[in-house]
Queue: 3 jobs
Job 1
Amino acid sequence: MLNKSRYSGVIPSLFLVALAGLIAPTGGWAQESTESAVQNDEKIYKLDYTANFKPAEGIVRMTITVRQPRRLLRGVQISADPARYRMFESNQPIEEIDGTVTWLPSKSGGTLTYQVVLDYERNGDGFDSIMKSGWAVFRGDDLVPPVKTRSVKGAKSKSRLRMTGPEDWSFITAYEKSIKKSDWLIVDWPNRKFDRPIGWMAAGSLGVRWEDIDETRLAIAGPTGQGIRRMDMAAFLRWNLPTLKDIFPVFPHRLLIVSAGDPMWRGGLSGPNSLFIHADRPLISANGTSTLLHELVHVAQPYRAEPGEDWIIESMAEYYSLEIMRRSGTISERRFELGLEQLESWSSEAEKLQADESSGSRTAKGVAVMHALDGELKEVSGGKLSLDDVVRQLCEQRTTISLEKLRQTAEALAGEPLGSLPSKASAY
């Protein structure tokens, strides 16, 4: 049994001295740094995450164990909402202040335990994480929230995850097993130093449909008895996933689609190598777009929007949810045009494109921009260029996107100024 080691309020002076001695040489706390780490055994520490699901108690008991040959990982700060994360305990020093938990592993490592309440309602409009008596749908981010670390320069984790629960529960993630028939899953994100489990997951009494589509191992999973159309989704992706992958060259070789009914949020949400879609969402909406394809485009996008530029990411995903189905023959040319017309009508509700989180009408307004840019690129190049080429450039750059970045990339390809993109003044 671990001894509870907790500090509140002012940290004792002896602890401050120890803290300074442990972490001062490494600089400031880094938010899940994406710097390349030096790959050698001397700078590898091992991270084990164990999640024990207790539906009768409404909690998940989490354990994080660090094993290291010397003091490589010197401190971990966890952003922990007290309403969801509680009972932090360790034999090493820990401190809790205003929703931030600081843990200092010893030179050989250590163990941190805590409890997670999975239930989390999304803006009062359904849950995006929940645990019922017979199942749970959640993200790895719910088990291990965002962290900042202090470590020796070049140090990197070698991480794995194991989930346990009631005897009749099974578990599914997008991660691969460390070895066949093992309970341990490999958590490896090459561009991160501190690997933590992220992406959509499901647990409990599950139904799972496995498919291999265009060199992607696909699993469509969710609680049994929820009306999940696994076969329909698999067939839909057989028609459309190859086209999507032709446009977006960066796509995971393993993909998990998690679905469930109420009280989950009635929409779609993407994550790394995974996504969630409500069981009642149609594969093709009345306006011809597809929530499933929209979220799959997000999975395929290795870039993110700069503040205020979310419309670019969202509009690109919405435009391609139409365009991919047009190319695959899932919808006709006329249905494609009707979809654009309906989105254009909706876009009249939005005056500007700029927003930290794009609304439906802003996204619709941005779809018209993407369609116009695609058309102009084809026109100036005699059909040799399209929006696809811009997307591929952005995928190679793996950077943040702004209107200016989009303009620079498109005009560099075209070799001349383009008039289809709005000015900053008109967009914002």
Job 2
Amino acid sequence: MAKGLTSYQNDFSGWYNDIVQKADLADYSPVRGCMVIKPYGYELWEAVKNGLDRRFKETGHVNAYFPLFIPMSFFEKEAKHVEGFAPHLAVVTIGGGKELEEPLVVRPTSETIIGHMYAQWIKSYRDLPILINQWANVVRWELRTRLFLRTMEFLWQEGHTAHATYEEAQEETLRMLDVYTDFAVNDAAIPVFRGRKTKSETFAGAIASYTIEAMMGDKRALQAGTSHNLGQNFANAFDIKYLDQENQLQHCWTTSWGVSTRMVGAIVMVHGDAKGLRLPPVVAPIQVVIIPIFGKGAEETDVLEKSHQLFQELKMLGIRCHLDDRTEVTPGFKFNDWEMRGVPLRIEIGQNEIKAAQFTIIRRDMSADTGRGSILREDAGSQVKDILRQIQQSLFDQAKAFRDSNVHEPTDYEEFKKSVQGGWAFAWWCGKESCELEIKNETKATSRSIPLDDELDEKSKSEKGKATCVRCGELGTEKVYFANAY
């Protein structure tokens, strides 16, 4: 199977498209720009969903659902919002064979309709805060699409909260950024940079946007999750008000935040290799695959019996495992099949393993040579759990080492241009949008994030007030990650 893959080194984009289809994650829909998520890919999305949903509920959020169709007039109430989304809207003008009195927008995001509902629900400071999330599909009319990364219809979660003060809204915005970071690092094994977006990259209608940015296997950036402080923009547009403790009418402060199915694409591109997927055990639909190496007659029965015993033992321990007892394909085919699907740990059981009272294991996070080992039959379950923890950490460590080795700190513009051709540049910027635009036009690199103060290293802190913009030479006000991005 791996032999049929496009080269990981020479054509990363082609490799990615091959992996998504060959590993049975998704396929192209007959509707241009849309995708069909296959069961294995949907299980991976469910692992993302479950990991995030648990964290949302632990931080006091509850789930609800809002309509797919939004009146066009709602978008026109917030000028920056409609301006930012206008090119991507899908609009329904006919329903039931008749022209609609007012066109309906197919949900690209839900700030407007949720703002409308919050205005009905919020009357007093006692109603605040409102902490609601919804799991939904959205539609954005994209010209260039790629499975999971950018499709016209995709799945996501969008959180929408309302607060009494700016400080509470800002605390919520950063809290959810931390939730996303925690998921990316501890579940998806993806190292990310937490930071703030520049003004030109801020979400339409927000006063500040924050992001987690990840480096893919081809060194391009992917915005993996965003959290926005919407200020009072939507509260003003939709008249979301509350009576405070002094019985004075005040506008609320709102936030929104979201992660989509592009997180699945991130997992593929951060961890995959020339043989296929490499899935972190925490999110892998199948954590362990057991492959019986059949002999003949009684030997085959014995091998299958021992394989079933191990399968049941692992299952009882809560390990997601699969017993591949197919007889119509060779063991070699099975090995390649499960390597392509990225199962973290493979266990082989044959007559030799039974005689030695131990099982052969192959770790997907390592090469075929270094990843091969064995575990004792006795207490195999606890050994497997330990190995899965090691694999989870190993994949994170590999991704972080790769990322860190490809982030450069150029001292001049020529060096900057070379840096973004083969990685990321972490460089000082003057804060002018014109300079940011020139960088984009000349190098195709965009600003990814401005690190939060607690993420700045000592070297960068010491340069504040002294360093100059890498593009124009004026005083640098912010140190920014720049990269070519998806």
Job 3
Amino acid sequence: MKILLVRLREIGDVVFTTPAIRALRERFPDAHLTYIVEPAAAPIVACNPLLNDVRVEPKRGLVADLALGRSLRRERYDVAIDFHGGPRASLLTWLSAARERIGYDIPGRGWMYTRRVARARELRPRHSVENQWDLLAPLGIAPPDPSRAPVEMTSDAAAARTVAQRLRDANVSAGDRVIVVHVSAGNPFRRWPADSFAALVADLAARDARHRVVLTAGPSDRAATAGVIEAARRRLGRGQQCRIVECGDFSLAELRALVDRASVYIGGDSGPLHVAATSRVPIVGLYGPTLPARSAPWREPALAAEAVEVHGLQCRPCDQRVCAPGDFRCLTMISAEQVAAAAMRLLGDR
């Protein structure tokens, strides 16, 4: 049996398909599983031992996609599952000509599938893993359990060696407690203010001589990260400033390796938080317009995690197109003190 899985992007959404990969492997142990993904999210599944083949396919336009479709058709897949639902993903699923094509019942594209699954249009308090798992129901796969099928990302040995060396070069020793703080997000609706990050980083650095705070960010937020580091160090004494560690940029594989070395991870509801969820590290998640019920770490319930959010806002959750109040209060009302307290509780548990 040959099964094609399509989830082109984003990082967090690709992470959310990994429990389904395990479920498919358990249900069809002898199946050949192929996963199609775009380059940005490819490291999530590149080393997954449950997959037989990962096809990294950048967007090159319609002509290239038609050629890709012909290539997929030659593979003669028995089943194709479109976890994505976007125009390109649905086209590739249809072009694969798989005998059974499973996707969401989306207006204008549902005809491309042989089995259509309803997808709610409203923002329900239901986890994204469960929403994507609905596509497995036609294959007779039971509902998901995070204890049996958590999110997964296999650590890359070369990335782990690189991260270990960079930490040594930054004078981080084995006895230090590494706190990873991710300061960027994919859109302004999920971006906690830079001043709040600076206050948090300074607070955590000052609390314990063993703390080493490592800031990470996406490529577009390097300047913001430098600003947070500078502002945080101004709040500290000269002997404490070295506790904020500069290690440069981290690739997705390196971020996963860094998290394995961390005592706690702190960040907004974005792809890196879900990468962190593939580890056993305690996690503090900052939830603005989104709900923890939809995107909290999907893993063993015994693994420590705390959600920091503002309750009682009529505008929350939202579709992240327009901030109705205009002041992003779901984020700005989260204080650095709240986040630091959550981190310290998890560090204490550790």
